[in-house]
Specification:
Number of domains: 1
CATH superfamily: Uracil-DNA glycosylase-like domain
Strand order of the largest sheet: 2-1-5-7-6
Largest sheet: 5 strands, mixed
Number of helices: 7
CATH topology: Uracil-DNA Glycosylase, subunit E
CATH class: Alpha Beta
Helix content: 25-40%
CATH architecture: 3-Layer(aba) Sandwich
């Protein structure tokens, strides 16, 4: 059976911040972007044809054992993305990014359907992320990412054996993963998004 083509104009990719040597004007233009393209089964040209943005526009540096990611600025950028992007599927690269969109305590590869869009919480592609050390994790990430980008549903065998973290579409602003954890978009962000949708409908957008 022929695989469905990936429609790049329907896809958005959201990263945390440029790398130390990365170009802020070209999100995911370096090794991390190349890794995502490989896992997605697409060419690098196809990847950069997708909508792309970092939530912090400059390298965040380090803070203790972690990085210096600015969650406040990231949350503002996330709200702007929800208002401005006309895409159906958005890949959130890392849990810092997911939290800025209001999805907390959800595992990697969880999928959330809300506001007529689908979100995939994907592990940050950096080589320092130990999640990638297990080969089965990479295999599973590749399979789910490719299906997500093509707009397909997770196959039944993933749901039956408990490996899928796809969430069911809900009318509320909460996504629940297969392991029962929950993620909630804040009231302030939900109100801002709703106002944006109403204003666009009134404008005939």
């Amino acid at each position: 059976m022929k695989k469905k083509k990936i429609e790049t104009h329907k896809i958005g990719l959201v990263g945390q911040a440029p790398s130390r040597r990365g170009d802020p004007r070209k999100p995911l233009a370096g090794p991390n972007g190349q890794k995502i393209a490989r896992l997605a089964g697409m060419s690098y040209d196809e990847l950069i044809a997708c909508r792309r943005k970092h939530l912090n526009t400059h390298y965040s540096g380090k803070r203790g054992k972690g990085d210096g990611f600015d969650h406040a600025k990231g949350s503002v950028k996330a709200a702007d993305i929800l208002l401005d992007w006309r895409v159906e599927r958005i890949v959130l690269l890392g849990k810092n990014v997911a939290r800025c969109f209001g999805f907390r305590d959800l595992p990697f590869l969880a999928e959330i359907s809300i506001y007529g869009r689908r979100f995939l919480i994907f592990p940050h592609p950096s080589g320092t992320n130990r999640w990638w050390n297990e080969r089965r994790n990479e295999r599973r990430a590749r399979q789910l990412l490719q299906r997500f980008l093509r707009g397909e549903t997770v196959p039944a065998e993933f749901r039956k054996n408990g490996r899928s973290t796809r969430t069911r579409s809900q009318t509320s602003s909460t996504g629940t993963s297969a392991n029962g954890s929950r993620g909630t978009i804040s009231r302030r962000k939900r109100s801002r998004i709703s106002r944006g949708h109403r204003s666009r409908r009134m404008a005939g957008d």
